[in-house]
Structure formats: C-alpha cells, structure tokens
Amino acid sequence: MTRLDPPGGHGRPAAPSPSAPVSGLGGPADRDTAAAALARCVSVEAEKFAAAHWGRTPLLSRAAELPNPAGFTDLLSPVDADELLSRRGLRTPFLRVAKDGQVLPAARYTGGGGAGAEIDDQVLDEKVLQLYADGATLVLQGLHRTWPALIDFTRDLSLAVGQPLQVNAYLTPPGSQGFATHYDTHDVFVLQVDGRKHWRIHPPVLPDPLERQPWGGRADEVAATAQGPAALDVVLEPGDALYLPRGWLHSAQAQESSSLHLTVGIRALTRYALVEELLGLAAEDQRLRATLPFGTDVADPDAIEPELTETVEALREWLSRAEPAAVAARLRQRAWSASRPAPIRPMAQAAAITALTADSLVVARAGLRWQLATEGERVVLRLFDRTVSLPALCEPAVRALLTGAPIRVGDLPGLDDDADRLTLTRRLLREAALTPA
After folding, report:
1. Using an 8 Å Cβ cutoff, are 94 and 108 in contact?
2. End-to-end Cα distance, the chain
3. What is the C-alpha to C-alpha distance for residues 308 and 314, in angstroms, rounded to an integer?
4. pLDDT digits (tens, 9 = 90+) for 3-34
C-alpha cells in the first residue's frame, strides 16, 4: 500500500513527460446548464448569436421566442425584491437609488438597524418607501452574490459566454425614468421581469468603450446623438430579453405600471487587456526599466523624442518574443478571480470529509474553473483562488474527478488502493474543488 503525501510532501517517484496544461469549466452538467442559461437570453442559436451579435449589434428576443414561458420571475420577482428591501438587512452598496438622472446620497435611505445591529449603512424600508413613492428608481446591486436563484443563473451564464458577470435589478415606479441616455462600458442582457418599459437605443458615440472611458466624458456627444433617430425603439414586456453591446446608447422609461428588470452586465475581456498584461510582463526587460538620462526635461518633446524612439524599439523587440503561455497565465488570474464557482456549505462539506468512504460519490464543484498540468514529479491543479500540488501519479484520478460525472471514490483510476483514493479525495474536498454528489 502506498500512502499519498500530505500537502507539501513529495510522494513516490514519478517522471512522466511534461504535458501542455489542460483547462476546464466544471463537468458535463455545467455545459448543459450553461447552454440553457444562454438560451433564456437570446432567441437565436448560440453560434448565430456569437457571429452576428456578440460585441456588434443589439438583439431583441420576445418572450414567445424564448424557452421559458414563465419569463424571469423565477430569478427575482417583485415579492423577492420587497423581501430584500425589507427583511434581509441589506447594506450599501447593495442598493443604489436614482431620480431624474441623479444618484441620491446613501444617507437618504440608510441608517442603523436597531439593537444589536447598529451598523449605520443598512437600508431602511421606511425611507425607501418614501423615495420610491416619489418616483425614484431602486437599483439592487450585486445580486449574483446575494440572491440564490441569480447566483446559480449567473454562474451558468458566465460559463456560456466565458466572461465575468454581474447582476443588478432596476425597480422603477410608473412613468418614471431613473437615468438619462447613457452607455455602459460592459455588454448587458436586459431581462424584463414585470411591467412594461420603453427603451430607446442609439448607435455608439465611442464603439467598444473600456471601463476607463465612461459616458460622462462624452456627455455632449451622447445628448446630441440621443436627439436623432433611434436604432431600436421598443417596449419590453414581461419575459422579453434585450442584448446590448457596450457603448450602445440607451434610456428606459416605465410605462403605466411599475417595472422590474434585471441587467446582467458582462465584464468584457478585451484586446486592451492583452496589452495591459503584455506591458506587465515587459517589466522583465531591462531596457524598458532603464532610467531616463540625468536632467531630462520631460515637458520638452525634443528631449523625449530619442527616448521614445529607443523605448518603442525595445518594446517592439520584446513583444516579438512574448510567450502566449505567460500572457494566458496572467489573463487566467484576472478572469478567474472575477467569477466564483457554485457556493459550498462549509459545515456540510466538513462533515462529508469526515464521513468519506470508498463508496462515497463526489463530483467537481459546479462552475469550477481549473487547469491541470504535469510539472516534473508533480501534477499541479490551478483553481480560481489557489494552486494545489500533488504527486504525478494522481493525474488520472484528478482528471476523472474534474471532467466526468459523479464518481465513486473507490473507482478512481491510477491509484493502488482505497487508502490513496480517500487521501486524494479528502484533499480536494478540503480545497473546495469537489463536493459530495
């Protein structure tokens, strides 16, 4: 019998050939739920959406064209919104309030929660009622972290589009408009839950804006363009969905009744992100770290010109040697940290570790992003927040755990006996890579 080494140990010798890293997003069930989540948001096949609309043009999908006849009330209903506003001890910044295009100070709707909850930034339902009744729009923010149905839906949709997501809900009183015409620096899916809302969509004044290029810096251009003909002028009904690429101008006004819609923001990973990571790696080049000459007048273009020429040449030379693997590693750290896998229940997970037997069934944590690589005598598992190093002989078992359906611990391949299989499985349960099936 061979026992696997504890964390930090070396295990028994193994020297497989180095292999390219293998990455994955959960197991087969994740792929199915990801496809289903996207199908709820767009009325065309995923391939057509990717080719014709993704990052390019808006797409309106009517409820009758989408697969769920009940619309989106299962994700967040008006009753659910009231629950959040009244009984969950919500705090800022999980609520924002806007009226007549202005965001109101949080002090107007927050305060202490009474005995034992004196924290003074809690949402006060009485104050929220007054503002909403006076025509203010309520924005419930970060619902992908606070509301169970949206935690699951956002995780699945994030796997489908391959980008980090966030979810806000907008509750607008009858006839009101919370925000003036503007653009977002992220793509959005608008999911109309309840009521009717009139949307006017105009082409971008700045195509594909970055997060550092918000609409406020182009307010005059935005206002002028909004006076022209709309590219899309439509009233969203319950169950309708609208996709808007970043940069497209939009405004929305509730109609004869109050409106509730969800905005799923897609935090775009761009080519500029590649540039940022390349520049981060360029710090390894000594020529690019060189100090400017003594006494250089940085305000003088003639003094800067020769330094700029040499810097551009050094950068061009360095970029020609840039390794895709190094850039991918930095992008992985950026993207994976922004998207969490499915929640785990710490006490239940700890109990499962204690009770684990060879007959126990386990499965990869839903929505888990992972990368597996063999490095010498170790197999390295990279997760969204940690790296796990194991003896290389564990590679077949780890791969089976991460890529397949629920598996019995005693059936894990590549290990000599159940003692090794239990040791490995307990380690991965403790590292939150697996859950009980």
Report:
1. no
2. 27
3. 10
4. 565 444 433 333 344 456 888 876 777 889 99
The residue from 244, 266, 288 where one domain ends is 266
Map residue 389 onto helix, strand or coil. strand
**For residue 326, what are the domain limits?**
271-335
Q: Which amino acid is at 86?
A: S
Letter for the amino acid at 416? D
Whether residue 10 is contained in a domain is answered as: no
Which domain-ending residue is among 307, 335, 363? 335
Helix (H, G, I), strand (E, B) or coil at 236: strand
Q: Are residues 230 and 280 in the same domain?
A: no
Contact 72, 190 (CB under 8 A): no
Burial of 21 (0-12, 13-18, 19+ CB in 10 A): middle
- What residues pair up with 265 in beta bridges, in sequence order? 166, 188
250/181 Cα distance (integer angstroms): 5
The predicted model scores a pTM of: 0.89
Angle made by CA atoms 163, 168, 173, in degrees to the nearest 5: 150
Residue 185 contacts residue 209 (beta carbons within 8 Å): yes
Residues 240, 161 share a domain: yes
Q: Tell me the pLDDT tens digit for each residue of 61-113.
A: 999 999 987 899 999 999 999 999 999 999 999 999 999 889 999 999 999 98
Give me the residue label for tokens 């997501």: 165
| Residue located via tokens 């182009």 | 218
| 192 and 251 in a common domain | yes
C-alpha distance from residue 302 to each of 108, 269, 306 (Å): 54, 37, 8
**What single-letter amino acid sits at 314?**
A
Question: What is the tally of structural domains in the chain?
Answer: 3
